[in-house]
Amino acid sequence: MEKRYASIWFKYLRTDRHAIRRPELREIPFVLAEPLHGRMVITEANAIAEAQGVTRGMVVADAKAFLPSLIVIDSQPQLASRLLKALGLWCIRYTPVVAVDPPDGLILDISGCAHLWGGERDYLALIVSRLRSRGFHTRIAIAGTIGTAWAMARFGKATPIIANGSEIGTLMPLPPAALRLEPETVDRLQKLGLRTIGSFLHMPPSVLRRRFGDRILSRLRQALGQEDEHIVPLRSIPPYEERLHCLEPICTAIGIEIAIMKLLESLCKRLSGEGRGLRTAILKCCRIDGKIAQVAIGTSRATANIPHLLRLFKLKVPKIEPALGIELFILEVPKVEDTDPVQEALWSSSPGLEETSLAELIDRLKGKEGTRAIYRYLPDEHYWPERSIREASSIAEQPSTAWNTDRPRPTRLLTRPEPIEVTAPIPDYPPMLFRHKGEVHAIKKADGPERIEREWWMDTGEHRDYYDVEDDKGRRYWLFRAGHYDDGNSRQWFLHGFFA
């Protein structure tokens, strides 16, 4: 695939933003200024002020001398970077690779994207019209290299779409500043009479290096495609991502479900071919008003089962607000895991946790509104009860150690032991009764004590003496006394779990 880049130039970036926020500024000359050496100096002028002779770097007092109606607004140095980032994130709907090009531009890697909008000309026209409708003065050029696209966006006077291989002829009539050179280098070239790129393009590299340094050679090679130039995208591209562009805005739930189906078909075909399945998926719906609605699903085990994933997304469709319509769907899969396609064919006849229908049922339950308490626990190599279990990351995860079955353990263990009041006949005997949340339990059967010492290499504190007890209603509990018996102090007793 041929590389293609688009360079977007916002000539009046910050003044446009002020005019968008304050519509009364659109028809009057105004500038942004900041103090410099005790004087207010203009850092940016809007198009109307510029047309009347106001330029960047001019002292405000001088400008107001011939243009008394000039409005002066305090400059905000960090505003440009924030604006470019926001605009770049907005442009991700047109390509996943967007980079900020300070101080007033964006670079888009549009390789393989433009045909989705009918070709590069329609693609460029759409972006320009969208940005101008938002109030930004915009120039865009497309070329096979970043350097040529950048030069044509700012200095080009012919077509803004440059075919691959025609960079030399395009660059020759442009001024040296089109190569993104330092101002000092540009001044030196102009003083020597080299006022176009063509005037020094074919000079020996050794001559250019000796007079102007390596920078000019590097910029020339980059613009001509002889040296790679890399950009840092605003957002890293997920390794598994599918996009669906809509010819007409989608506003209905059925349309959204059809779009999800098409995305899943493309994505799951790739995942199945690589022997992988998704665990987490995020659907982003880019609306024509510039906002993004998104929903996410998760699965208990890695899967590329399209019907199952579609059912999970259907549970989320009512949460998607299309507003005036959705023009782009993006399906990202940030988490995938390996899966065995041969084993997957056998799951339908396998019992227990390996049953596909069980995993799919859990996923659907998790996707329902208000259902969150579905967990699976595995044993961990600790004697201290709170550390003896851990939450499994998936339904297919295998335990690293066996369950401890030499002593009975409750089916429900409290996250934090709850204090209880007890009555015990003598020290080291199980209690005769205990009070928990206002209810008195008379104990009929008891077994214990079982002493569990603290793991001294992890924390300090008292040991515990545990008792398995059964009350007069047949309910069984796991109680413990913290530390040694201290004059029958009932505050040392706790309830820690419930048996089935």
Description:
Helix 6 packs across helix 10 and helix 11 runs antiparallel to helix 12. The protein contains 14 helices and 20 strands. About 2% of the residues have low confidence. The two termini are 64 Å apart. Helix content is 28%, strand content 29%. With 500 residues, the protein is an alpha+beta fold.
Short summary of the structure?
By secondary structure, the chain is an alpha+beta fold. The protein is built from 14 helices and 20 strands.
Write the layout of secondary structure elements.
Layout: E1 5-10, H1 13-21, E2 30-36, E3 39-45, H2 47-51, H3 60-66, E4 71-74, H4 79-91, E5 97-101, E6 105-109, H5 120-133, E7 138-143, H6 146-155, H7 167-171, H8 183-191, H9 205-212, H10 214-224, E8 241-250, H11 253-273, E9 276-287, E10 292-303, H12 306-316, E11 326-338, H13 341-346, H14 356-367, E12 377-379, E13 389-391, E14 412-419, E15 421-423, E16 433-436, E17 439-452, E18 464-471, E19 476-482, E20 493-498
Parallel strand pairs: 2-4
Antiparallel strand pairs: 1-6, 1-7, 2-3, 5-6, 8-11, 9-10, 9-11, 12-13, 14-20, 15-16, 16-17, 17-18, 18-19, 19-20
Helix pairs in contact: 6-10, 9-10, 11-12, 12-14
